[in-house]
Design a protein that fits this description.
This protein is an alpha/beta fold. It has 2 domains: 216 residues, FAD/NAD(P)-binding domain (3-Layer(bba) Sandwich); 113 residues, 2-Layer Sandwich (D-Amino Acid Oxidase, Chain A, domain 2), CATH 3.30.9. 31% of the residues lie in helices and 25% in strands. It contains 11 helices and 17 strands. The strands form 4 sheets. It has a 7-stranded mixed beta sheet with strand order 5-4-13-14-15-12-16. The protein has a 5-stranded parallel beta sheet with strand order 7-2-1-11-17. A 3-stranded antiparallel beta sheet has the order 8-9-10. α1 packs across α4. The longest helix has 30 residues. The structure holds flavin-adenine dinucleotide (FAD). The site of flavin-adenine dinucleotide has 33 residues, from α1, β2, β3 and α9. The site of flavin-adenine dinucleotide (FAD) has 33 residues, from α1, β2, β3 and α9.
Length: 405
């Protein structure tokens, strides 16, 4: 193979979330011409943020980053001042009935980042170069010879040699690949998820969380499982400047329907239905103020099945390919693997080592197989976590947070 480059192929990425941006980094590093399209109006359009654990996929993530993003990476940490020791890289799971530590899971190499902070770092150079087109909601994709034509809701169009759909759990790209068929739709899991982000302004309200663990902890063994985490640390010496994130997950059938998905009514509902939650998780919910933000939604999943790649021109990655429950904390970590493998597939085509159709088809088959396993595991893990009798059957109990898909 002679490795000649006839023309630099153009790759269009739909969705400038973490998956799209990370893939863009890897592709740019490899010399591809990348452009991202996102339906939002800009980086600040969505204020919602959450902490994400990255450990087994950390080396893969770092290998994709540009030098400047790699240098800025520590700024994405929830607590950039914290020294990561083996104890910090091992998060506790608390018995939701007794408050005792049930399990402590080693997560070697763990770094806790927030979605917004990492997204900002990943987006910086693409935004500066005008390579992210905001306000572009994908509506249609047409294969036209070697090119794919993208049509957006604002009536504009664009063309690319390759299209990667990284447009999240309710992916339009996925829907289009399945002809808008029901089979592509993410399914309600029957599990509700509420999150809140109190900035207490009072060290005495932050300390109970940090005393559990410097990064956070989760409960199991009860029908309403919870988690608490340190999300932002402005001044490491003053806990009054810290922000906490809490999460509560319950079966939809067990409680009345929430009156609202966000705002004061949603918060009042969570407070009124959390009397059975143990401390210190309950107080974090109780102390959340209306100005802090509270969101409720039913979690959705989609167990991937093979999609048509149109001769290797179109495929998916990240939550668009495998929207899973938060249990096992691996949605983003699998997205990192997708990004790395997609870049490798395109390099092998460009260098004449494989044909476009074969390389992207092989990439897709691997994502579907791995994603289906991870989504299914997240569902069974949720089921097992809500009863003390079954907690010991969880992958968490048997294998900690190690990679299992
Ligand atoms: C509370 C919580 C905790 C989590 N914890 C962990 C963890 O500890 N470890 C872990 O690995 N994972 C975790 N995850 C999962 C992780 O956050 C996701 O897997 C990851 O952020 C998905 O990124 P994405 O880029 O694929 O999708 P998204 O973040 O959803 O990005 C999709 C992008 O596509 C854009 N878009 C959507 N539709 C269109 C359209 N039609 N046209 C153009 N653009 C469009 C959106 O505007 C958005 O910017 C957690 C998730 C949650 C909610």
């Amino acid at each position: 193979m002679n490795g000649t480059k006839a023309q630099t192929p153009k790759v269009a990425i739909i969705g400038a979330g973490l998956t799209g941006l990370l893939t863009a980094h890897g592709l740019k590093k490899a010399g591809f011409n990348v452009v991202l399209f996102d339906q939002e109006e800009g980086l600040d359009a969505r204020v919602r943020d959450w902490p994400i654990s990255v450990h087994w996929a950390l080396p893969n993530l770092k290998s994709l980053l540009s030098d400047s993003a790699l240098a800025d990476f520590p700024q994405s940490f929830t607590n950039p001042h914290l020294e990561y020791t083996p104890e910090v890289e091992s998060m506790p799971c608390i018995n939701g009935q007794t408050g005792e530590v049930m399990l402590r899971s080693a997560m070697p190499g763990l770094r806790r980042i927030t979605r917004q902070r990492l997204r900002r770092i990943l987006a910086a150079e693409f935004n500066a170069a005008g390579a992210i087109q905001w306000g572009k909601q994908l509506e249609k994709m047409d294969v036209d010879g070697e090119m794919v034509r993208l049509i957006f809701a604002d009536g504009t169009a664009a063309e690319a040699n390759y299209v990667l759909g990284t447009d999240g759990a309710s992916s339009k790209a996925r829907a289009l690949l399945f002809g808008d068929d029901e089979v592509a739709r993410a399914k309600p899991s029957g599990l509700m998820c509420a999150t809140g982000y109190p900035r207490h302004g009072d060290p005495a309200k932050v300390e109970p969380v940090v005393n559990l663990h410097p990064l956070g902890a989760v409960t199991a063994g009860v029908t309403s499982t919870c988690g608490v985490a340190v999300m932002y640390v402005d001044d490491p010496k003053d806990m009054a400047t810290w922000t906490i994130a809490w999460i509560k997950i319950w079966r939809r059938s067990k409680l009345p329907e929430p009156p609202a998905k966000k705002g004061p009514e949603a918060l009042a509902y969570i407070k009124a239905t959390s009397n059975d939650v143990i401390e210190p998780f309950r107080s974090q919910i109780e102390w959340t103020r209306e100005t802090d933000g509270c969101y409720i939604d039913e979690m959705r999943t989609w167990v991937p099945v093979m999609w048509e790649t149109h001769g290797g021109r179109i495929t998916l990655a990240g939550d668009a390919a495998h929207p899973m429950l938060v249990f096992r904390g691996q949605g983003f970590q699998h997205a990192v693997l997708d990004a790395e493998r997609y870049v490798q597939a395109l390099i092998s085509v460009r260098d004449g080592k494989s044909k476009k159709e074969e390389a992207v088809q092989a990439y897709t088959a691997e994502v579907v197989e791995r994603g289906a396993k991870a989504v299914t595991q997240s569902l069974s893990e949720a089921e097992l976590s809500m009863d003390l009798e079954s907690v010991q059957k969880m992958l968490l109990a048997k294998m900690g947070y190690a990679r299992t898909a």
